UniProtKB/TrEMBL annotation:
<comment type="pathway">
    <text>Lipid metabolism.</text>
</comment>
<dbReference type="InterPro" id="IPR013094">
    <property type="entry name" value="AB_hydrolase_3"/>
</dbReference>
<keyword id="KW-1207">Sterol metabolism</keyword>
<dbReference type="GO" id="GO:0005829">
    <property type="term" value="C:cytosol"/>
</dbReference>
<dbReference type="InterPro" id="IPR002168">
    <property type="entry name" value="Lipase_GDXG_HIS_AS"/>
</dbReference>
<comment type="similarity">
    <text>Belongs to the 'GDXG' lipolytic enzyme family.</text>
</comment>
<feature type="compositionally biased region" description="Low complexity">
    <location>
        <begin position="580"/>
        <end position="595"/>
    </location>
</feature>
<keyword id="KW-0153">Cholesterol metabolism</keyword>
<dbReference type="GO" id="GO:0019433">
    <property type="term" value="P:triglyceride catabolic process"/>
</dbReference>
<keyword id="KW-0472">Membrane</keyword>
<keyword id="KW-1003">Cell membrane</keyword>
<dbReference type="GO" id="GO:0008203">
    <property type="term" value="P:cholesterol metabolic process"/>
</dbReference>
<dbReference type="GO" id="GO:0005811">
    <property type="term" value="C:lipid droplet"/>
</dbReference>
<comment type="pathway">
    <text>Glycerolipid metabolism; triacylglycerol degradation.</text>
</comment>
<dbReference type="Pfam" id="PF07859">
    <property type="entry name" value="Abhydrolase_3"/>
</dbReference>
<feature type="active site">
    <location>
        <position position="427"/>
    </location>
</feature>
<feature type="region of interest" description="Disordered">
    <location>
        <begin position="620"/>
        <end position="640"/>
    </location>
</feature>
Amino acid sequence: MHTMDLRTMTQTLVTLAEDNMAFFSSQGPGETARRLTSVFAGVREQALGLEPALVRLLGVAHLFDLDPETPANGYRSLVHTARCCLAHLLHKSRYVASNRHSIFFRTSHNLAELEAYLVALTQLRALTYYAQHLLATNRPGGLFFEGDEGLTAEFLREYVTLHKGCFYGRCLGFQFTPAIRPFLQTISIGLVSFGEHYKRNETGLGVTASSLFTSGRFAIDPELRGAEFERIIQNLDVHFWKAFWNITEIEVLSSLANMASATVRVSRLLSLPPEAFEMPLTSDPKLTVTISPPLAHTGPGPVLVRLISYELREGQDSEELSSLVKSEGPWSLELRPRPQQAPRSQSLVVHIHGGGFVAQTSKSHEPYLKTWAQELGVPIISIDYSLAPEAPFPRALEECFFAYCWAIKHCALLGSTGERICLAGDSAGGNLCFTVSLRAAAYGVRVPDGIMAAYPATMLQSAASPSRLLSLMDPLLPLSVLSKCVSAYAGAETEDHSNSDQKALGMMGLVRRDTSLLLRDLRLGASSWLNSFLELRGHKSQKTQVPVAETMRRSVSDAALAQPESPLGTDSLKALTDLSLKSSSESSDTPKMSEMSQSLETLGPSTPSDVNFFLRSEDAQEEAGAKEGASTKDRGLGSRATFPEGFHPRRSSQGVIHMPLYSVPIVKNPFMSPLLAPDHMLKTLPPVHIVACALDPMLDDSVMFARRLREVGQPVTLHVVEDLPHGFLSLASLCRETQQAAQLCVERIRLILTPPAAPQP
């Protein structure tokens, strides 16, 4: 299937679908046969409608590549993802055609999987139409929409109403390498369990670690899990994501992660005093410039950094450095002087971690940093910058720049002579690597010898691009979560949901407090899981009136499927694939889908001065009434102008989307969105090496940033890894593919740290 061209794949799938339709339509009026016939009719319809759109995208995708040796951009990624879905349906259709006569044929399982992937295919078809509209609207070669902000707002408002739950249930991670999928399933189960307890708690922070084990129904029912996952990503605030992402930093889990990582001689948390110091200017080392401590938002304060070194090197056990060591709690181990010391390294790596600007510390990234220290043989200093929303832009940039300059000035204490300096970071950390280097150039101090950025975010302004369309199905970087993180970093997310006691305890203190109940609750969690399973089995066994031959899996999808029969086609498909939860709609005052769709369709474009990309619930009705007279023709990027007649993708059943991201001027600041930096600023950057992911919603950030650098004559390389998700560095030990991708990052750092060869006489 991987070597099969798109047209052949589509025709083969259509032929198999028609064959299965003919077979099951001849099996009588039973419900199972009717549903199988209907689902194969839907597969045929969607495949035939999708194939021409994919061919058109493929025909122009090469125009958006960085160069012929780097065939990567959001259009290619979208086509590849659609091919993965078509390939899975083709495989399943072949299996059904070959085994439908067998007494061992699992009817309910195969039907549920076909239905789930049919919904996914329908939504992917909608994304291809959105991509086509971007293609027609953007300037030649541009991946980000650069038109009127009102049109961009309307496009995103329309896009976020699409149904997403199908991508978080049975289809979770179908586009990634198979080795990643079990991990994603574990994360999704933990996320929805964590979110359920977060929702029940008044403050949303008193969550026990045993909550990850007590909601067994999410592990049993993928449709239920997908619907709950969609609710969480759309409605829970940035504080939830901060708490969930920081789970890996509790003592138990971080200790387990470190047990599997390389053993290093030095891993010390340092607290840099908020004292100004002088740095020499690169243009004239006799002149100096004052580097002031961070001041934004919270005033002067220490900056935490972590020093990691595989060997104990000169200076790393000095009294001056020991005076900066910060205790990490009762489990921390102090470094003891050793009789033998390695000489200072010629190089130093300054690392800035990712986490959406709102979560994680160097502790989360310590496992792969230890591996880097071992393989590179150089000291690494990782910066623990302050996180949003408590410390929005530019606090993190100020702290990273201060720590970077301090490391250069005091490199002897860190076990390095500082001859070669590399800035390295991932995701949000990649963004900060670029902006720290831009700030160093603006100050006139030494810029690093090179930057290695893994899947960096270079465009924080809400602009549509083909790769950002992939956020509809990405379980690690959904658009709503990305929006909340950027809003927090931009200072738009300022609401504090914690009470005074929680403020005193702190986010990680709450997680540590609740995790102390883990051992006690493990037995209760396992019992609850078993009871949930037995209860579900009991409900199934009570349905004795259903004939044995027609026994079906009764789940969320079955509840939605039990509707009056309607003619085959898009309308029946819409009813067929309704995965919304009746219980969820009853527990929350979510408007009916038809009412929500009607209100969203009546919304016209916002004015550029007050663009609200994602409507708040209290504004939805007011704006809907104000824009009621807007015509379809004036809506530009609206669905009626994007989708062909008769095609209706699934819409979300979660109500109005809570993603308060605004088009504030700060996101256009080049120190926040380096992609928007003018040419003269980009020319100050050192050689840049970017490692991106083909299936990452941030792929276009990397492609366009590399193109900008190349246009101004700056040295840049871009390597795009296939079939891996955003954040693969944190999954480096998970499988062979992530190990190879992590090794690629190490090779790029080594390239920066290798002194250039002396010119031949």
